[in-house]
């Protein structure tokens, strides 16, 4: 008999988080199940810091709000958590404390809202005997086994609006306008916004680009009388024989992302200006893609995901990820989502074992982009 459930969020914020929280809570209330939210994700789970969500004003009027009312943990790996001992930083596996907190609180199921790394940790807790149900959250749309993640549609919409605005400046001043968008290992935002925003070039992490091919595209446009171009670049894009652009690094310990990407848009803009003779400027969209009001599509998708997750809990179907397959709600094992990566607490994606959903070269979006003349740098 399901009596209590908990919710936590890990990773960067995404439009639709509050809609998921609201849907889980409303469905819980309807079935007389208590619902709690752990504050700041895995940090809240570790320190047993939570609030009551059901039959509370906390979830009133949050459907349209960006961010998350219970916060999120970022780069917090409780399987390798940084603590201070004798004035020194050391890393310890504190996951057992989290397990004990859940047992003491009598939480029957933990909902984990997050992307690839979050669901790996969810799988790890499932291995420790905790009932877990994941909900796929990431604007990058790179979680395996699901058609789409919530937050992605809003991010694409924001990027598309930015391209619309940059297009007018590019045309007016005869410039190359570059837009750098998020996407460490997967270029879904780049490709969809490029198609929707009428970009001329889209550079993806999945296709190491040849800058000469990009120059050829721009020169072709110049010959046809179009002395401007619009280029979209994933933050994780990189040239053939080169590497990704790293803005900053840190020592956060094993199992967390220790590099901050950034700068590829600037690199591309400078190279294109030098080679084409046209002035080129880069705009890095950054956190604008993650913040603010979710689109209607993301509100609906988030609500569907949240309600389905709670339905699965009521049915006793644990240690799964709520997914959308061919337009219908479904679920898959967390083991299928994580793939071959069996390392406890591992969170970095982009490896052969991570099972991250990247764009394949036979994807309809790739074919569409090529058909309408978008240069992909190859």
Describe this structure in words.
- The protein is of the alpha/beta class.
- It folds into two domains: 4-150 and 294-338, 3-Layer(aba) Sandwich (Rossmann fold), CATH 3.40.50.450; 155-290 and 361-371, Rossmann fold (3-Layer(aba) Sandwich), CATH 3.40.50.
- The chain has eleven helices and 15 strands.
- The protein has a seven-stranded mixed beta sheet with strand order 3-2-1-6-7-14-15, with helices on both faces.
- Strand 14 (320-325) and strand 15 form a beta hairpin.
- The radius of gyration is 22 Å and the shape is elongated.
- The model has no long low-confidence stretch (mean pLDDT 92).
Itemize the secondary structure elements and their pairings.
Elements: E1 4-9, H1 17-30, E2 34-38, H2 42-47, E3 50-52, E4 81-85, E5 88-92, H3 95-104, E6 109-114, H4 116-127, E7 132-136, H5 152-173, E8 176-181, H6 188-197, E9 201-203, H7 211-223, E10 229-234, E11 246-249, E12 259-261, H8 264-276, E13 280-284, H9 296-314, E14 320-325, E15 328-333, H10 334-338, H11 364-371
Parallel strand pairs: 1-2, 1-6, 6-7, 7-14, 8-10, 8-13, 9-10
Antiparallel strand pairs: 2-3, 4-5, 11-12, 14-15
